[in-house]
């Protein structure tokens, strides 16, 4: 078993970021106004770590697959409407045997990115079970987004885009197809989450509500891409 994706240290569980950090905070090389916890969930090998590495470092982790052990996280600060939003993104192990470890972290997350692999039907079929688990362990108002990853693998596709869209609609969650390999829609997914969380935390009563579905659709169309 590799430790490429090492487990979270006690220090982080003890000093976890509070739900909404509104003062300007600084850690090593990293200024931010507000911080949120985001978790990546989904079956083993759907590409959670690769999506995170693509977003954080702009690179693709190809080569031999090494499964995550336990839970790990990385931070990234993004700009949203002149605010520095820090996303602390927790990468969980998809393998069943780590499930009890990851359950413990659900309740601290403000957003969950739930991934399946468009070239792996069981990973899509398991999404309903993941959503049941989320409803059991996560906060009631957690932001959920469904991602069909590996959209670059057109020849191996076994889950149609429309199937992903239909399932997402049924659960009322936003959806897009991503590729950690090409980078398609990866930044958009995290930015949409950051915007939604920032609006929820700072919204004034007279301000219109941020519409995450509309934002995603407008941005997908802007880049002329459909996630394929
Ligand atoms: N073609 C293609 N391959 C991908 C993509 N994302 C991930 N992979 C490959 O899929 C395999 C699994 O990726 P990981 O990111 O390690 O999967 P994971 O979901 O983190 O797996 P666990 O840690 O076991 O939960 C690796 O061999 C990756 O190179 C993608 O978008 N396109």
UniProtKB/TrEMBL annotation:
<dbReference type="GO" id="GO:0005525">
    <property type="term" value="F:GTP binding"/>
</dbReference>
<dbReference type="InterPro" id="IPR005225">
    <property type="entry name" value="Small_GTP-bd"/>
</dbReference>
<keyword id="KW-0449">Lipoprotein</keyword>
<keyword id="KW-0342">GTP-binding</keyword>
<keyword id="KW-0479">Metal-binding</keyword>
<dbReference type="InterPro" id="IPR027417">
    <property type="entry name" value="P-loop_NTPase"/>
</dbReference>
<keyword id="KW-0636">Prenylation</keyword>
<keyword id="KW-0813">Transport</keyword>
<keyword id="KW-0460">Magnesium</keyword>
<keyword id="KW-0653">Protein transport</keyword>
<protein>
    <recommendedName>
        <fullName>small monomeric GTPase</fullName>
        <ecNumber>3.6.5.2</ecNumber>
    </recommendedName>
</protein>
<dbReference type="GO" id="GO:0015031">
    <property type="term" value="P:protein transport"/>
</dbReference>
<dbReference type="GO" id="GO:0003925">
    <property type="term" value="F:G protein activity"/>
</dbReference>
<keyword id="KW-0378">Hydrolase</keyword>
<dbReference type="GO" id="GO:0046872">
    <property type="term" value="F:metal ion binding"/>
</dbReference>
<dbReference type="Pfam" id="PF00071">
    <property type="entry name" value="Ras"/>
</dbReference>
<dbReference type="InterPro" id="IPR001806">
    <property type="entry name" value="Small_GTPase"/>
</dbReference>
<comment type="similarity">
    <text>Belongs to the small GTPase superfamily. Rab family.</text>
</comment>
<keyword id="KW-0547">Nucleotide-binding</keyword>
